[in-house]
Description:
The chain is an alpha/beta fold. It is built from ten helices and seven strands. A seven-stranded parallel β-sheet has the order 3-2-1-4-5-6-7, with helices on both faces. β2, α2 and β3 form a beta-alpha-beta unit. The longest helix has 29 residues. The N and C termini lie far apart (64 Å).
Amino acid sequence: MHVSHTGKGTVVVTGTSSGIGRSCALRLAADGYHVFAGVRKESDGRELRAAARGSLEPLILDVTDEANIKEAGRRVREATGDRGLAALVNNAGVGITSPAEVVPMDRLRKSFEINFFGQLAVIQEFLPQLRRGTGRLINIGSIGNRVVMPFASPLNASKWAFAAVNHALRVELLPWGIHVVLVEPASIKTAAVDKLEQEGLSNIDEFGAYERNLYGKAYRSMLKNATMHIRRLGTSPEAVGKVVVRALNAETPKARYLVGKSARPLAGIVKYAPDRVYDKIRMKVFQLPDEFGARAGEPVD
């Protein structure tokens, strides 16, 4: 099947079942692009197609499944032919938190498998089609590319790694006229906020007595204050969709787009505050205790 030559071109968006990815896919379809919306479940694809105003086609795409990525690439290639892609929007991601001292290695690997290796595998698969269409590569990063939240090193480390690849690609792909854009949302109000809190609290339940005594109070405070801030002051995911459309329609897009009410203040703190001041700000914002749990040699309940 070949998509119509009408409209602005074809875009692939990953991770569109909910939140930011969903908003990006719907906004791009409404703006006149034919959207291949990456989902892992057919039921999510049907719901997304029903909600779309414009041309949107669900695409089964699991960024951790190499064979599935190749099949998705083949399907899009058959649909677009020699026209190639107008854009690839990499959004699929997962938020995993834990004290670094006790994070299980399988959870840390999961964070990198989805947020880093999976994203790069998708880029590698679709770059020939982007080159054919002189399209744009738009990567959805996070303010976590710049700001490190205590107890969020599994998430932030994978986001920093992906941002590094983004910065390299920005120069590597210049010879083909492919603009590479990093979108950095902060405090976006989606269902992922509830999931992050619930999984974090489950982590505490799984701690042994020693780990709970060390980190339980501080980790719980971080989860409470981070999610409370997002629920009260967070920005709608539609704001990210608008920025993605702007980056795609601009004659020369910016290299980076900050999105969200708190994005610029947070970026400013990291840029201008000395490291020790930055640390004190994080301690205050997340209401972390001046002293964490047991000292070495102290008894553990």
